[in-house]
């Protein structure tokens, strides 16, 4: 275990990344636990308010992220200072990303359906950083040997090719596959050759005059969402808590 730790974490200088990821995940989980207790009216925790202003935890999160980020840049990848900066950055990032949906919508949607985006983005961020920690490099450059790395043409071709695959997957409405495809090229290729989501820019541009392709894309998206929407929602509710049930809207008088 000691040899693995030294060879895979210490020598490559990945300890700050590991500390930042750990602090990020722990902060998010602790924050969600506290907010769920506040929501249920249990425990000693309460919302922080100054007068009529509710101080969201994204505010100290931004401050900690800025402090940790600048200290990390100034301190390098090694040493006690870089480790502390990584932890501070991870804590700040966890607080910020926990309220990602609020930043996106510029509204307090924490316990609404739109608030699910925060949990989804946190899980996605942790997964991508975990892949980087395991040794995957963006655009598949880690797959090159020493001779290929010395050739600029090979490196540029590899990066460009993988970037284009990820971009195609993104325009097809497959954002998760595109993000993971930046780290693992094969996933980007899978997303690039599959049918686009019916509401994606790709479908609007290339399926407009192809009714069969448009209908097939809609059918496939329907079956995919029906199969995975339920388990995805249950996982998000288990991690971050279920959103509030919105009251039914009254019928408008005609």
Q: How many angstroms does the end-to-end distance come to? A: 72 Å
Number of strands: 2
Spans of at least 5 consecutive residues with low confidence: 250-254
Order of helices and strands: HHEEHHHHHHHHHH
Q: Provide mean pLDDT, rounded.
A: 84
Q: Helical proportion? A: 55-70%
SSE blueprint:
Blueprint (H helix, E strand, L loop, with lengths): L1 H9 L4 H26 L8 E2 L2 E2 L3 H18 L4 H19 L1 H6 L10 H19 L11 H5 L1 H20 L3 H9 L1 H9 L7 H6 L4 H30 L14
Antiparallel strand pairs: 1-2
Helix pairs in contact: 2-4, 2-6, 3-4, 6-9, 8-9, 8-10, 9-10
Explained architecture:
Helix 6 runs parallel beside helix 9, helix 8 crosses helix 10 and helix 9 packs antiparallel against helix 10. The protein is mainly α. The protein is flat and about 60 Å long. It has twelve helices and two strands; from the N terminus they run H-H-E-E-H-H-H-H-H-H-H-H-H-H. A hairpin with a 2-residue loop joins strand 1 and strand 2.
What labels would you give this structure?
2 strands, two-stranded antiparallel ribbon, 254 residues, 12 helices, disordered C terminus, single chain, 69% helix, flat, mainly alpha
């Amino acid at each position: 275990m000691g040899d693995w730790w030294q060879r895979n974490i210490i020598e490559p200088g990945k300890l700050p990344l590991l500390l930042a990821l750990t602090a990020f995940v722990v902060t998010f989980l602790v924050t969600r636990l506290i907010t769920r207790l506040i929501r249920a009216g249990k425990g000693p925790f309460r919302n922080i308010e100054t007068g009529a202003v509710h101080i969201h935890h994204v505010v100290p999160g931004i401050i900690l992220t800025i402090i940790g980020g600048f200290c990390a840049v100034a301190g390098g990848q090694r040493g006690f200072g870089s480790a502390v900066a990584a932890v501070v950055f991870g804590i700040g990032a966890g607080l910020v990303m926990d309220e990602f949906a609020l930043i996106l919508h510029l509204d307090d949607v924490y316990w609404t359906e739109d608030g699910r985006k925060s949990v989804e983005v946190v899980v996605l961020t942790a997964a991508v950083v975990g892949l980087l920690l395991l040794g995957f490099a963006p655009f598949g450059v880690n797959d090159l040997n020493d001779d290929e790395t010395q050739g600029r043409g090979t490196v540029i071709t590899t990066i460009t090719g993988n970037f284009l695959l990820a971009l195609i997957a993104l325009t097809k409405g497959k954002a998760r596959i595109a993000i993971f495809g930046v780290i693992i090229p094969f996933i980007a290729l899978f997303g690039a050759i599959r049918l686009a989501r019916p509401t994606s820019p790709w479908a609007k541009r290339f399926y407009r005059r192809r009714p069969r392709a448009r209908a097939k894309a809609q059918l496939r998206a329907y079956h995919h969402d029906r199969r995975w929407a339920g388990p995805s929602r249950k996982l998000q509710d288990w991690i971050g808590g279920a959103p509030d049930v919105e009251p039914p809207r009254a019928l408008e008088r005609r």
